[in-house]
Specification:
With 366 residues, the chain is mostly helical. 61% of the residues lie in helices and 0% in strands. The protein starts with a helix and ends in a 9-residue tail after the last helix.
Length: 366
């Protein structure tokens, strides 16, 4: 009779369902059906040890797993192998390059494996290469036109180009971006180009041209606007604002995820990047306060470097933090982007009204 009572009172188990543990909490029991659906959607699920089942359930309930981890589970067993991506052998040159880029930019092994499996070189990382080629072409053009390649800024015709930012010509809006294609000399171009290629190309391969282009353009624009607000009489040339935004965002991402970054010689590489940034910034500071070749027009300002760093440490870090998560899903991104937009609007009003209200004595137009 007791057996009959238990048989009628216990729910029947149907195919494709499973009964929650007897001692499970109500929250876990309520989550069992949703967990079963997610597991059934996977084509290949690795066996889970009994002691890890409760931790797995808790992680799903508290949503601690990242989007990339869930996608890796659904994709199959390859992403969940015990061996690291670095231990794989028999890879071609392009595959080794992708693996190297993964270890240079991504802090988690599951993200590195997911990126390694999904990257197809389509589209190729052409944005940073196109920017670099354009900067070299502009430099060579003015090098031959001005008949000098070292300290081009000392030429009387250097600022007559339609590209540099000049305080007297601040109403020409394109100059707030086009100044990045001109450089003071070959040493200025070389340092910026080296940092842009070594950092920008791997970041574009991982995060895409849209994200990297956004950080770069925001850094360039913030650099010229920062100069127009804080160093009101100085012109601006060089791509340091955009370059420093990318490099500082990458370095901050490495520091924040130091234990997870498995790139070789990461401390040495960080030190070299900081040395290059310091040398280029020191050169810009020296040039700004060096007696100008054509007074009363001062030499180009160095404040654009600082504007790029601020953009990299705020907006850039958020953009690079989760490479698989879309920007519109990140609340912190919208916070920093709103602050950045407010800064741009304030700088625009400053350029329209502050110069006349403060009676700033500007150098003559080039």
């Amino acid at each position: 009779m007791l057996c009959g009572f238990m048989e009628t009172s216990s729910p029947r188990m149907t195919a494709g369902t499973r009964e929650p543990p007897v001692n499970s909490s109500p929250a876990v029991a309520a989550n069992a059906e949703g967990e079963e659906i997610e597991v059934l959607e996977s084509t290949d699920v690795l066996p889970v040890a009994p002691e890890d089942q409760w931790k797995s359930m808790f992680d799903k309930m508290s949503n601690k797993r990242s989007n990339s981890f869930r996608r890796a589970i659904l994709q199959g067993s390859r992403q969940l192998k015990g061996c690291s991506l670095r231990d794989e052998v028999g890879l071609g040159l392009s595959q080794r390059l992708v693996r190297h880029v993964a270890y240079e930019t991504l802090p988690r092994e599951v993200d590195r494996k997911w990126y390694f499996d999904s990257y197809t070189y389509c589209p190729p990382p052409l944005l940073i290469l196109a920017i670099t080629i354009a900067e070299v072409a502009v430099f060579m053009y003015y090098g031959f036109q001005l008949d000098r390649f070292v300290l081009q800024v000392s030429s009387p015709s250097f600022l007559k180009s339609p590209l540099p930012y000049h305080p007297q010509l601040r109403a020409q809006a394109w100059r707030y971006l086009s100044y990045s294609f001109m450089h003071t000399g070959i040493e200025h171009l070389s340092l910026n180009m080296a940092m842009l290629l070594l950092v920008g190309v791997p970041l574009e391969m991982v995060h895409g041209a849209l994200r990297i282009g956004l950080v770069y353009v925001c850094g360039v624009l913030a650099g010229s606007l920062a100069v127009s607000v804080t160093d009101m009489t100085a012109p601006v040339v060089g791509s340091s604002g955009g370059v420093y935004a990318l490099v500082s965002a990458h370095l901050a991402n490495v520091v924040m995820n130091w234990s997870g970054m498995k790139c070789q010689f990461k401390l040495f590489r960080m030190a070299m990047a900081l040395v290059c940034m310091s040398v280029e910034f020191g050169r810009a500071v020296w040039l700004r306060f060096y007696p100008p070749a054509f007074p009363p027009c001062p030499n180009p300002s160095f404040v654009a470097h600082l504007g790029g760093v601020v953009v990299g440490l705020t907006l850039g870090v958020v953009v690079l933090q989760n490479y698989e998560q879309r920007l519109q899903e990140q609340s912190l991104f919208w916070i920093f982007f709103s602050v950045y937009t407010l800064f741009v609007l304030c700088a625009v009003f400053w350029n329209v009204f502050a110069y006349s209200l403060l009676d700033v004595r500007l150098p003559p137009p080039p």
